[in-house]
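Researcher: Structure for this, please.
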Amino acid sequence: MQGNINVQTENIFPVIKKFLYSDHEIFLRELVSNAIDATQKLKTLSSRNEVKGELGDLTVEIKIDSEAKTLSVIDHGVGMTGDEVEKYINQIAFSGATDFLEKYKDVQENLIGHFGLGFYSAFMVADSVEIFTKSYSDAPAVHWTCDGSPSFTMEECDKSDRGTAIVLHIADDCKEFLEEQQVLQLLRKYCRFMPIAIRFGEESEWVDSETETEEIDDGKGGKTSRPKRVEQKKPRIINNTEPAWRKTPASLSADDYKNFYHELYPMNFEEPLFQIHLNVDYPFNLTGILFFPKIRKTIDPNRNKIQLYCNQVFVTDSVEGIVPDYLMLLHGVLDSPDIPLNVSRSYLQSDSNVKKISSHISKKVADKLEEMFKNEREDFEKKWDDIKIFVEYGMLTDEDFKKRALKFYLFKNTDGKYYSLADYRDMIKPLQTDKDNTVCYIYSTDTTEQHSYIAKAKSKGYDILLMDSVLTPHFINLLEREEEKTHFVRVDADVVEKLIPHDDNIPEKLTKEQQDTLKPIIEAEIDKEHYTVQMASLESDDQPMVITQDEWMRRYKEMAATSGGGMNFYGEMPERYNLVVNINHPLIEQVLNEQDADKQKQLVHQLTDLALLANGLLKGEALTQFVQRSIDIIK
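Model: Predicted structure, token format:
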């Protein structure tokens, strides 16, 4: 028989090759998926007693013949009759899986094919394609061939065993698909969790010989014999047909989850913190396992990404949309037949199901974290530093998640202790409430750089939070909105006496007139573009001069650095600091009373430079001059 394939254009194959599939390598996934479908169909028919006899070995096999320049995909599934080849191959608009599902609507197995075009992806890499197929029925076997034009030939053949063999005659510009390692890599990428065993080539394993022995040291200066280790070949099965996400959580141990994690990411040697096992059958089907990894500052968001599967067939690791943004750094796998894909199954198409699945994933994450907070508090605290960034990002971007997370979010203070939001507020409220009844949360972003400020605040009895996340400026804004009468201030945003204003101010040793005389003397020696002089009544044993930075201006500049957009205005503003002068310190009084103008100038320089040095702001020529001036003073 000869004929033309029933398509709407005379030139369908260049369209498929150029536009339908984004990557040529997809052909292997499509052909193996079809072979898996055919095998799944056979098992379904057998369960209904519509297939007689034993099913035999159902392993799908991929073969390469370098000399003949062919790649074959062979299954022992339902096969096709001549009429079915005519319907499913020659009439491109039909889909075998769709038709089968229509007939067997109550079938539980989820078949992979949906579009009827998967087979034709073969022409992206092949000059011609042959099909040898024999149905499970008594119909004659069929040989079909096509050279990439709409013309084909179809005739009976002498194939004796049930199933289908697709033979691709690889084109000269696609010879890489005749290389064993290339094909093995693709099979492991797309097919390593398909539900039917897939065989490709052979692999070596070392076993104990049943007939040969060898002598080894016995550890006591003598010799002992043992079976000799010998290499033997065995068929290479490239897939795990029962991956962990297809099993019930109750049947899996902690080690099972860890082993599966390393099966997903063989090059990641760290253990995940914990996992969330998803198993939903209404209002959509979704299974999967999401792992919380340890976050490192050098983390690569393009490695170990969440993998999306459709009925155990790998689709993509670009899961934007289906996974909430704040969980994109999680690892793991999701599998759903209800996720809408484009015709080549290469990427997601947006619809209501995607939003529902995304919301469900967010809810399951919140459930898990709240459960750990309530029932495994000690372990939860140990993991908190690694998961905090996920929680903060989620609270900033997901309103529903934020409401849940307010219950289990943890503050960590500079002593390494953890508190819930409610418990921490209750603890600091008596001492850290100002005259306007606003509770002041004092925080540090760097305990080393801000050590002197932390020590001073703690000496007053204040508790200092450690908030060193890149999201801190955004997150504290959120908390200030959520909780009335709440104010966050970094420990170096002002001198400790002014962080939490009370009415009991320290008496001033310098009069207003003396302060007015002193201020311009100091201003004359500083960079007024970046520093503003402020006079403050502090304890006499405090530092003579302290550098602070306005909380709001610094916070918005930090937010602009991570947000951009409408906040660029703040990011472009120059850095500004306050030079706080302690008018009760003896050295400040000495500056005021110094009659020698040069000595007065030198003393002001030394005191301001000491304040700058304490904050890492003294650099370059100014630092060199400070060192030399210090040497001169010591002399």
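Researcher: Any notable elements?
Model: The chain is about 35% helix and 25% strand. Confidence is low (pLDDT under 50) at residues 8-12, 93-97, 107-116, 342-348.
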